[in-house]
Fold these 4 entries.
Entry 1:
Amino acid sequence: MELNATNNKISQPDTQPQIMENQRIILWLFMVASILSFGGLTSAYIVRMAAGNWLTFDIPIIFTVNCGVVLLSSACMMYAYRSAKTDALERVKYGLWGAMLFGLVFLVLQLMGWKELNSHDIYFSPRRSDNGDLTKLISGSFFFAISAIHFIHVIAGLIFLLIVLVKAYKMKIHKRNLLSLSLASTYWHFVGILWIYLYLFLKYWN
Amino acid sequence: MSNVASENMHHDDHVHHKQSFISKYVFSMDHKMISKQFLVTGLIMGLIGMTMSVLFRLQLAWPEKSFPIFDTLFGKWSTDGHISPDFYMALVTMHGTIMVFFVLTAGLSGTFSNLLIPYQIGCRDMASPFLNMLSYWFFFLSSCILMSSLFVQTGPASGGWTVYPPLSALPKAMPGSGAGMTLWLVAMIFFIGSSLLAGINYVVTILNMRTHGLTMTRLPLTIWAFFFTAVLGILSFPVLLSGSLLLVFDRSFGTSFYLSEIFIDGQALANAGGSPILWQHLFWFLGHPEVYIIILPALGITSEVVATNSRKPIFGYKAMIGSIMGIAGLSFFVWGHHMFVTGMNPLAGSLFMFITFLVAIPSAVKTFNYLATMWRGNIKFTPAMLFGIGLVSLFVTGGLTGIFLGNAALDIPLHDSYFVVAHFHIVMGSSAIFGLLCGIYHWFPRMYGRMMNPQLGYLHFWMSLIGVYMVFFPMHFMGLGGVPRRYYAFTAWDQFAIWNDMNIFITYGAIIGASAQLIFLYNFIYSIFWGTKSVQNPWQSNTLEWTAPQEQIHGNWPGEVPQVYRWPYDYSRPDAEADFVPQNVPDDVVPVGWVHAPKGKKDDKI
């Protein structure tokens, strides 16, 4: 015990070999849970569509653009992570700022995309359209529900990035303290890939 | 690696540090205290759920009779001493929700996973004590929200614990569809949060924090069961979360995921295009694994208790692990057997039927292994052991009717009849309750340092067993006779009049069973304060929790955590002096048996 406390570089003699850091497993399990929750939503979509009486619509180009935004944001995150590995601390901050900026752009574009859908009489819930008809597109409701739940995941990711950014300003992110940055970047890539998957799913599974 | 430092700091912290009342008893991060919090909350919820069942049993047995006490207790929910039909439905719904989620999911798994995972794997606390605390308080909040729905004007949710739309999706469908249903959903969302936080914590702790020498194949079966329970929770609760969110959208934001065209008084509602069946798919995709989330911890506890009290190694350790895995894996592919009457494609129905039958294999493996473990063992009939044997009995009885209901051709006539009620109450309701009680009797000395009174324990066991069989066994015949479940009274149908006496008999059974739990409650509370002090290892068990000192300290063991040299089932070894060899006995004292010797040491065979 004494030995451990003074020199915690030695792997824990107290335990069996660890698979990876606890926090990393926790994050992965959260992501698994999240995948299952989107799995539930997309399966519901498939089951409902298979039942017939399903109206399709074109997805506004803005959501396609957002896939690019996701990639840019992920690229910034990778830049931050690589910089941290070489102790280029200033660049870590630039990378994180970039990732967050593109994250915000993503959110704004999503909102604009939803507005555009509304202008085509596609709503989350039934509304009176301009010609007085009640819009009853269940496929639209699914689109809004799925993208909105993803939206919340992105906001969570931004909060995560903000915490890491504050750490970076406190000089707590560097070559030998990469865990929080690495976890944030894993999560950030995850929500990015999730969007690209959801986009492809919603666009082509029609 | 930083864990070591923080772990040690924690440990030292609490040896020298006096905690305030709030941090010790309320917002505690110690797994032992959190386990007690789960247990006490679970027991209170269990008491409420049980009382509800006695109330609606009184209504079913004597639908014409007036109970003036109801008027005082329920106010406007009762007229002239009769529970109102709305309130009856609410009682049934709340009973189901409370028992399935709050008692048998959180109460059972929360209590014993928290208590036993750190103790039995030899670590000082959970991977994240903070998330662990959060998980309890989410559960507590969720319980409070659910209970508060009893006091809203339109009453609690009353569309059944499975909350099928449209009753759950249209706030005006029936009284309980209003605020009560909203509160039900909010409670459930917090509950799911609690389960996820807890489950993730359990998995990480088991994977990463086992003490030196404790390989996965030397884990007690309790830990294996808790592990797969947590995995099932992580995989299935998010799906219910998604489903519940869609239900919230339908209720509050005017979407129609679960609502197709509905006409009220000839007027079409604005909703269109949804499907109520969708909810059933999402619900039962959780709902079936949920059954195993309930039963697996009970089976794990029983494995441990049966082996200890038979003074024999558990029979077929690896087969037990395999069957836990098998049950867990199959559980994701059988949800359709709850939906045979939804007009499902017969091919899909046959597939669900076939996979459902496969569940019989691992279940039978477990049953036979329990029997083989007890066979010619030196059985100690402690109350815990009796409840363990009781669980095996109930598991067999209920499992057999599962074969009836898994068969689509038989399920369709039996669907929503008392046969179903009998089946699931025996196989996963009562047997999991027996597992919970088995665990409480067995680990009470570990939790509170005192013994429970065994005589009252025996009385509790026999009354419970008789009560359970009196209540649920006759229900099979009622179900075969076509009596439907969830009916307020059967007075309007002549063909059900022959069951009147049976209903009275069942209610007497319920009263016997419920009184037994009051005896238990008395024993439990009395023993916490005034029970006889227990010794460190009262059952002469092998697992690590009994190597920790009696007074509970933060960090569990003063000094180093024990090292493990063997599997946990070295009972009655002919080459050892005592009839048990705890896991931390080194192999130069008693050689490690061939069963779980590390590679290269196989020649140590005994």
Entry 2:
Amino acid sequence: MLHAAFLIPLFPLVGFAVLVVGGRRLGNPLAGWLATAMVGLSFVTTVVVFAGLFERAPGRRSFTQTWWNWFSVDRLHVSAGVLVDPLSMTMALFVTGVSTLIHLYSIGYMEHDEQFPKFFLYLNLFVSSMLLLVLGGNFVMTFLGWEGVGVCSYFLIAFWFDRPSAASAGKKAMIFNRIGDAGFLLAMFLIYERTGSLQYQTVFARLGHVGGDSLVAIALLLFLGATGKSAQLPLYPWLADAMEGPTPVSALIHAATMVTAGVYLMCRISPILHLAPDAGHVIAIIGGATAFVGATIACAQTDIKKILAYSTISQLGYMFMAAGVGAYVAAIFLMLTHAFYKALLFLGAGSVIHAMNDEQNTKVMGGLRALMPITGGTFLVAWLAIGGVPPFAGFWSKGDVLLNAWGYSPALYVLGALTAVLTAYYLGRCYMLVFSGKARWVEARATGDGTSRGHAEPALEADTSNPNVPHERIAAPAGPASHGRLHPHDPGWVMTVPLVVLAFCSVFGGLINLPFHPSFVFLERWLNPVVGRALFNPHLGAGSEIIFAVIDAVLALFGVALAYSLWRTAVYRREVEPTFLERAWFIDWSYDRLLARNSTRMAAFTSAVVESRVIDGAVNGFAVLWRRSGTVLRRVQTGYVRNYALGIMAGLVVLLAWVASRTFS
Amino acid sequence: MTPHLLAATLPDGLTFAIAGVIALVGSLGVVLSRNPVHSALMLIMSLFGVAVLFVEQDAQFLAAVQVIVYAGAIVVLFLFVIMLLGVDRSEAIATEPMPAQRLMAVGLGILALVEIALLSRERWPLGAHSVAGKARGTGHSNVYVLGRSLFTTYLLPFEVTSALLVIAVIGAIVLARRPRTSAGPTEGEAAAAEAGGGPLVDAGELVGSGAPSAERRVEAEEALARAGDRIGEPVGEQEGLTVVRRPEQ
Amino acid sequence: MSVPADFYLTLSAVMFTIGAVGLLVRRNVLVMFMCVELMLNAANLAFITFARELNDVGGQIAVFFVLVVAAAEVVVGLGIIVAIFRRRVGATADDVHVLKG
């Protein structure tokens, strides 16, 4: 059964190929169904391979499949092939599973889009690349997938490329990812230089001969790649702008799958991190900082997708924190559960946006709970799950991370706990603004002479003054929202089924790794052969674990209660939405001022001076030189044959003189 | 040891002196004569002098060939062409359109002469004797020795030169023919030839074969432009040339 | 005893130079051509002289080939001259300077 592993990335690739050739002919919705079926088949195959792997003894759960020799340079032999082990299969399982649901959802969401087949073409290519990334048997295969998802991410963020904001958001994502990719590439060079191989197992077997400094360098360079892909400090701003893409894309790429690639990479290189604890410190600190910063920013955003984007950044920070302290199982556990509830949140947001005719501002929503019961209910589940309210999935996974953080350093635990409160709070705020309270959109639509923006003035002012989101859609016309009254309702079954399934997973996802008793930690035992035990085991007894669980629960409920009390009826509370947070700690703003504008200025300078004067000048200078010398030298060509004969004669004289000089010297 | 003319026997010395002077005077005459016919005659004189020197140096056969081929055939060919193109075409020998040309030519000539004279004082290693064989002392005549070498050792070059001669003859025929590139005069050209009487030239040909002058070419083109679409009709006449527009191929 | 080779060679060099200078100075194409023939003849004289001096018939063979090639050259050259100057008033080489840069 394990030999079917090659089919897992192949199915979406076939779907991609078919859609490239005949996507337009298949049209809407057939292209979508084809793409969904391909990803679904991939999911089924993954389940089969997973089962095959599960049957093996824990020590033998590693299977390398080599397809062909990709390229050989000197001693470097890179083969195309996959590595099937518990880690890669766990990733593949949730990637294909969540992707299938999101594909299904997209059929409904993208129903009216003119580029319907193209959207699914990109999605399929994305899934295929992501599967190559997680299944790849060596660093190069992983990098291939890494770049593949990067490209797809660009295509999908800039999917509505006729919007300038979407186009520039795509470029931004590309650039930030490139910075990270440079780190990945350098790490690969270093790995090859030190170990002579890029195959995971060979590299890990030879780590003993690599010096400690080199290991730290490798780990940190790979972490740089991961910060780019997974939107950590300092390379996170692209993820917030990535919300320009269609909402299913945000759900698929920028919440559930692609951004977790960095975390996956950290877990994959856990043998290196084991030997380079200094790198682990850096990763843990940056992860914790990102978690906190992301959560604080999310508290003050008004765009529903922005809230979710910063929430994603924050949650990814949690995962890196876990990976940095050596708790890889906790990282993967959080990644899995996060994939469920974050996808659910995004799909719910998409459903809301759909219902509100492309309105994304939470300040002009409200009261949707009664009108959209399924969306509202599942969103509520997702909120409680991400907030860490027991017994939802987030409670268990986040508790696991916090427990390990405590074992590493109490300071990190405090940071994580604060973030946990904020998480429960900001999503509560989001939920309250969207689903409860009065239906502000009714007044907006009814009185605002066709535009929805009239009553949202305070929020809009804040937004337009925000250079953090310079190309946001605030200035754009409300589009379809501007005409007619709204009748928000739950979408059709293709969109609600994924919501329900994901809600189910969000509720019960924690079951795969329950604490308190060694026989409950399925995930840990499953992943153990790959990542080993947690590095900093707090050595707590079951009693202490229960105390921590209670503390977590209390923190989560406190956040929920805070959100409820503050935002149950209110719409604007400037005191808890400071501009500082709304503008994302001015980080993006300072990037813009320090780097972007200066490099734009430098580019303008080079284009105005270096390009036009120096380079063009050199080219034109040569042209002028040749033309002038031609003007002078053309006189040699008199056209008179006697003159040419004179030249021959002169040549003869010179030749004779040369012979004479040789003879008489 | 400086070689001296007096070292030679009197007949030899006299022969060399007289023939050498004849050859030199003939050479100078070729260059200095105003009239090309005179130049040709002077060339014959020079060639005769050189032929005598050939005989003097035991190259009797080549001396005969020199007289027969050069003086008899080639110079006659020259005279023939002179007559064909018009004896009266003479150049203004006193004037020189390119100011530095004459000065530099003479200067370079003197320089070359000096250099040769300098170099001739040296004795040069000449390497092995050729395979051609001895010229004298074989007991055979010059014609015999030359013929034997030519038809044995140099047989292949000899055959190649015969091919060269054939090619030259064919080339001369091709060059000297009237330049009718196509299968014959088109109807329009024939009509124009009847009407205008002069040789037929079109603008393209004027350009291709070296126009008499740029002005004439421009005039011809202007005439063509005036002619518009009247293909084949005579459109203008300059200096005895009838200009017609060729039909499009 | 015959005249030493040096005299022949000097005579040959002088004739060659006269021919060369004539080629450069004269404008009549036909006269220029004759000057080329003069130069060839001077070279022939040198060849014959060397053949005698070195007692080698190879020099005479060379002269033979020079004569043949010169004949061919004259035939073709005069053909070209006739082709070019048939329709021209002047017959000087300076009239043909289409290749002027």
Entry 3:
Amino acid sequence: MTQAGRSAYRTVLRLLPPRFRGEYGSEMEQLFAEALDAARRRGRLFFLFGWTRGIADVIALAWRIRWGRSVAGRRNQLKHKASSMSGFIHDLGWSARSIARSPLFTVAVVATLAIGIGATVSMFSVLDAAMIRALPYPDSDRLVYGRTTFGERVNAWVSYPDYADFRDGSDAFESLAAILGGVGQFTVTGDQGPERVSGRFVGVDFFPTLGVAPILGRNFTADEAEPGTPDVVMLSYGYWQRRFGGDTDVLGQVHTVAGSPHTVVGVMPPRFRYRYGVDVWLPIRLGSLDTRVRRSHSWNVVGRLRPEATVAEAQSQVDVIAAQLAEAYPDSHEDKGFLITPLGEALVEGYRPNLIILMAATGLLLLIACGNVASLMLARATARKVELSAKAALGASRKRLATQFMTESLLLATVAGLLGTMLALWLQQLILVWMPIDFVPASEVGVSASMLTFALVASFGTAIVFGTAPALTASQASPADVLRGGQRSSAHGGAARMRSGLVVLQVALTVVLLTVAGLLLQSFLRLRAVDLGYETENLLTAQIEVSETGYPDRNSTVQFYRGFLDEVRAIPGVRGAGLISHTPIRDRYSDWTVWNPENPPTRDSERQWALARRVLPGYFSAMGIPVLRGRDHSDSDVDSIPSLLVINQRVAEWLFPGEKAVGRQIALDIGQSEPGFAEVIGVVSDVNVSWIGGTPAPQMYFNNANAPTYWSRQLNLVVRTAGNPTALVRPIRDALRELDPNVPLADIAAMDDIVQDALSGSRVIALTITLFGSVALFLAMTGLYGVLAYYVTRRTREIGIRVAFGASSGHVMRMVTLRGLALVVGGLLVGVLGAVAATRLLQLQLYEIGSGDPITFVLVAAFLLLVGMLACYLPVRRALSVDPVEALRSE
Amino acid sequence: MTEPATVDLQKALPLKPQWFHILLALSQDAQHGSGIVRSVLDQTGGKLRLWPATLYGSLEELAQLGWIEELTRPGERPEGESEKKRFFRLTHAGKQILSAEAGRLKSLAQTAFERLASRGPAA
């Protein structure tokens, strides 16, 4: 632990009585340093958590010692029954009575705090589940994730031959397993008709690597990776229950999966999942295309380290192997590496920024809420001045008065904390529904010890934050006041100053939240306004796949899809229909390396990739993608050699700069020693097919009829409709059933919804932070109003005198308004500084807008000034209505 | 030092878990603070870490109860250990209470095993 850390802990220890500190302080410090070092070795978050625990621990002890609930205290209580009413119990009773006397105040305070605490606790619980808690696999701290690196760029996908080399060449891993990236859709046929299920291809050692065994049957065996062995399948618990009613006889049964018979060999335990929940798992077959090509990266790699191995050791071993690969394959592996990361860290990477933004925002919101409650309590302390002065006159010490107020704050915070925690149980589900995290299922976040600890610390912290100022004010009550009964006293001035300070702070925090919200919102609106290059409205998409048994060869497959397309086009309300291998925006990947054979690249790093898609003729016109030069595919092109290809502008400009592209040849890396060739017949305009926004990727479109049969069986339908697209689902289904009742239509979705889905992450964050900003604004303005209203009440006499001596209404108005605006401007100055720091962390989340966007800052400032003026309005009106005669008479 | 309280053993049970583990950690030899923390981590398979304030708060309470005592005479302290470290050991009363708690846990476990056994294998 650093010197600064030690002195920070010593400061915390000052909470303990000097006797205790003197006796044990230095040993406690030493122990804490040891505990923290242990926590630091486990990660940065554990380190933070260690600090929280360490501090909470000291607070708890200080509480026990000081409030006399220690053993000695308890014994003394029994011995001296007469003084058994310990200070704490007494204060608690007093607080409860005092709170009960003003129910409206209590409800306002508890509700404000409960919402603040609830939001913070639920956010923490989600953060804890995603970033701190261990993954739900045995010894998950030994699990690692392997990714390919190209220089600085990290790619989640790994090529199978590379993977096999890393697996065989390193002894740091107990096992290293591959899983095919992405979830596949398969048709299962049986007595109950065809059904689409989700599934993944996994290495036969994937489940043992995660350390999870099937609850029924067995794992895949090593033989089952070999081609030619009988096909087998493992079921998820959910699918087993749903489709087979949990019948154990399912083992050994043969079912048709994706057109071929598969034997069921095992069922995985309930709730087992790796990132996404799927229905079935199939073993990787060695020798299939994806396992042979070193340049094709389509696998995810998960490994389990040996108990004594570290990530760094594993990394240095694979670095050596990567260097050997670079020597063996200089063309393709020059700057290629393999990155080993702890699995938990790798999985959370994509979510971390949003989680941290939301956590910080809820924390700010809670602080602002505390500001309001503190302001309310201060006002109450002032109102109870007479009561407090009376107590002081009767001999209550300052400490005693402060303690009583603090007890009241603690009581309120405890009640709010309990309610907030209950609220959090529900809110955390809502957060995960709004912002799904693939490896944290919403159904599985529940109550956890860390969540409750956090709730406790948050409640206590809240009480300290909002209770300190009122307690200090209360302690300043002077016995003389009760006699004087006058309006002005030091306690008054102190409370008013503190409330003003709170308003400045609230405004500052609001500025931070609103600026962040403004930037995120603009970024989201820009993303939503992106022109993808085709209309997304009135466009229906669905997935369709024919089985190998029903359509064994190319001819039958081609005939079926042509016939289907004709049927769909004939449905009334259909303006156009097309078929493509990848639904835009939803299916993102699949790219091939291409080059101009007349100008071949000398090195691999100079090659370029283009997204490859298979289409049936008519796709472009259905989507509304203009064919700029040449033509679309046609049904008569089927047998042409070489295959024909439509490319987008980007590919054309980059392979044939300044030249005609139509009629030219393109070389393609098809994973063999010799490249394949295709002839360009058309150039279409650039559209966004994978991501929303940014430069459209290079794209090329093959004729589905030219593709290998085993690929061409699966396609996605796009239908341009005249009206509401979902109204056509039924007629399309009917048309399909008439052609072949065994072919299911799956994943039906309107294109608009797919786009909405893709934007949901940025939308959720933008809207949530905007909501938080609005609540913060409301709270800050309530605070400002309270301060000004009180200011006017206190100055009623002064205003009366001024008016009596001829001050104009403009003068009175200025006096109140300037007071209010001074607070707002003070908050603005502090807040803008905070916002500059906060938004700088945001840059990566923003689309086409800078984090320092001056317009946003100016708008937020102007908006706050305007709303600040509104908050001044009522107090100003009251000040103007002061009748000088009344004001002077009242004293 | 305050006089040890006379406590009815049964009334003091069940012990707070951290008290039980501290007494257990001291059952063999006298130990100092970080030694106790390590023993408790071992006893609980790393599940229970005593944070400093919990530890020393409990040690003081246990000493007030007379269940443990600090080694004060020079000859008692292990050799070669720094003078600054405070060593604690179990008193006679401490041994009694630890054994009473262990007995309570044992009979509880006994009951659990018997009930499980009498229900037979799960259907």
Entry 4:
Amino acid sequence: MIETVNLTKKYGSFTALDSLNLKIEKGTVFGFVGHNGAGKSTTFSILSTLLAPTSGTAYVNGYDVTREPKKVRNHIGYMPDFFGVYDQFKTVEYLDFYGASYGIPKHEREILIPQLLELVNLSHKKNEYVDVLSRGMKQRLCLARSLIHDPEVLILDEPASGLDPRARIEMREILKELKSMGKTILISSHILPELAEMCDEIGVITNGRLVASGSVTSIQNQLKANKIIHVKLTADLEKAIVFFEDEPKISNLSKNDKHDDTITFSYSGTDVEQVELLKKAVSNGLQIISFGQEETDLEDVFLEITKGVDFS
Amino acid sequence: MKSLWINPVLNKEIKLRFRSFKGFLGVIFYLFALGLVALGFIIVSTMYGQAAIFRPEESRMMFTVLSFVQMVLILFMTPGLTSGAISGERERQTLNILLTTPQSSVTIIISKLVSSISYLLLMMIASLPLYSIVFLFGGVSPSLLISTFCIYLITMIAIASLGVMFSTLIRKTIISTIVTYGVTVFLAGGTAFLTTIIGQLFMYQQYSQSIVPYLTAMFNPFFILLSNFESYLTDEIQRLSGIDFPLMASFIIIYVLISVLAIGISIKKLRPRMKAQKRIG
């Protein structure tokens, strides 16, 4: 469980995080979306006890990060967006060091480490020096490291950044497995469609403020107030244009650029009204073969939400 | 207490330091430099003699020279070994992860310090066979050897603590290294210069006494090392300043204080300042 109450971080006059209020229930996968410098990493650093907030409080499993940082550290697995490894260590030694740092006894580590390596598909690299691992492997090793003390909460900052598509898919599979294990996961990513697939909830942050949060579909619905509708006809395009122009909730009507048999417009009505509109159009003798709503993905959601926000 | 000395961080530090080829090269360089001086000294002192004999007085002289060279080497190596302790991890982006483990700031700082010092101690121990030449020819008591090594240890710990402190406070290793070397040069050279200049000034004013030469000399490891062999210089400084308290004792106190302060600051500044623990009740 993660909760932040009016969490604020200021650097001089610059506000990196502005009264952030978040509540993530146990077992939820929460996707944190925002452009670079929006405040994602700042939030993650505070939750990982690496940064003290200017004001406000944050709780991990009920422990205040500023008052009981040691307890918080035992409950979180943190993976920073940029990280290094100790090159002189072998994969097993690397994990062994962190296992020991979390106070896991040696005989338990000997059982645990092969299991973790198995989970992140690195068993075949257990005796290699960390130095020679590829970026994707290092990323997975770091994820294994963050799991070594079996934390209930995972804080993963851009775990898929800089990975090639294949490595990204592997990372996603591992995260799905972690989700099935019931971990609370707070994850940030630039790659929005990937987040949508995995997350129960997402939060959109811009300029240190949370501008939207909720389930992926509810956020998409919030933004679908103006749907884009494409209507394809077999004949009488002009007649259709005249008909739709007279309808009250339609705006921006135009012929489709690519297909000259299709018209496109914005519609602000509800789903029920949309059904009525189609019925009326058909009963008016329009030769409609397709009446469809444009699919918006998270990318569009993100662009829509952050529209007009000054990123400079 | 056991967990403070045998802990994962120290284990890691020692493993990484002694595993690298750099660690091996360091010892080679150290022994080579020291051996060259010893050999050079024997060649020069026997070159103009009638017979190739090496007298106990020369042996003592050689011990003094070796001790000074070793002090120079220690002052040269300690900042390099410690001034990247924390900032190096920060630059390699391993520090954040280390700080999210439950390892306490005390453990991390002390482990960094202990591992650097153990490496320096290894070099000192590796140099002991060179000293056996001195013992072969006589002229030096074992107690002198022990006190000399104690001075090294105290100096080493103080400089190492300063190095770790600067590496905690300063984000970049290169700047931290420059600052640590700067402070070391001041402690080793600057204070000697000041002591000499001020000492000269007061020498012509027999009636006046000043504590300034004493204050600057007590920071200087070379003066202390010299006073361990010959006491005339420290006697003179103490006479000039009118302070009876032994210079050596002041040196020990001040260097221990520097170490404690630097370690304390490092521990405090390693992690961000959090609010105090909530009082129960």
